[in-house]
Amino acid sequence: MAPPSPRPVRRPAEGRPGHRPEPALVAVAHGSRHPGALPAVTALLELVRSLRPGLRVVPAHIELDEPLLADALAALPAGDAVLVPLLFGRGHHVKHDLPRAAAGAAHLSVRTAAPLGPHPLLADALAGRLAETGWTGAGRPDGGVVLAAAGSRDPESAQDASRTAELLSARLGGVPVVPAYASAAAPTVPEAVAALRAAGRGRTALASCFTAPGLFAARCARAVPGLPAARPLGAHPSLARLVLHRYDEARARRDAPADRPARRGGRRLARAS
């Protein structure tokens, strides 16, 4: 009896002629001197890798932590990359710093994903961290939440925070959620708490719209001692899924030009997402 014919061996996709490797996901955190910031971002990215095995996930920071974004991009081989900001609104970093870094990486074709907020997955992560505090105001007539965010002078950033507050409110059964800011915008966290309490919302908690511990997250929590305060989002499963969702959205823009288009007349143009 003749031995069975061997099955054809499939070549891995990476080795097929003409195959374009999957773009690297460059996750861009703000950066912080807080000792817990880098471990929180690292844990989040480990979770992202576990959800998408084989995807190249590269950490980067705008300032204060290493690797800085420019260095992370310079270390990548020529090819495609998607910058995913671990930020929650359309502020200066998303509109200016990330496209500027993309424009400086001449060996890469770079797209910039949307910030993480607003999105229902972000609301899920915020609700999950609130639940960890033991807060019991969800769906109650005396419940209220202050959504603590970094703050920005860009009005679109405030719009994004307001929309995130609406999504979180719906996720919590209609409890009022008031966005408040650590800097550059109003109201402050104490002002938002006071407004909720004046409206009869004495069972108030603080939701932390920050990826990792840092100056602003700590400032917001310290401003309202005794209030149930959620920790930064870190390696929450819904946040990891959202990072990949933003990456996939950016990859799907196949017909749109990359954020670092080809040179025109000797100048390189950059476009923000």
TrEMBL record:
<keyword id="KW-0479">Metal-binding</keyword>
<feature type="compositionally biased region" description="Basic and acidic residues">
    <location>
        <begin position="11"/>
        <end position="21"/>
    </location>
</feature>
<feature type="region of interest" description="Disordered">
    <location>
        <begin position="252"/>
        <end position="273"/>
    </location>
</feature>
<feature type="compositionally biased region" description="Basic and acidic residues">
    <location>
        <begin position="252"/>
        <end position="262"/>
    </location>
</feature>
<protein>
    <submittedName>
        <fullName>Sirohydrochlorin chelatase</fullName>
    </submittedName>
</protein>
<feature type="compositionally biased region" description="Basic residues">
    <location>
        <begin position="263"/>
        <end position="273"/>
    </location>
</feature>
<dbReference type="InterPro" id="IPR050963">
    <property type="entry name" value="Sirohydro_Cobaltochel/CbiX"/>
</dbReference>
<dbReference type="InterPro" id="IPR002762">
    <property type="entry name" value="CbiX-like"/>
</dbReference>
<keyword id="KW-0456">Lyase</keyword>
<dbReference type="Pfam" id="PF01903">
    <property type="entry name" value="CbiX"/>
</dbReference>
<feature type="region of interest" description="Disordered">
    <location>
        <begin position="1"/>
        <end position="21"/>
    </location>
</feature>
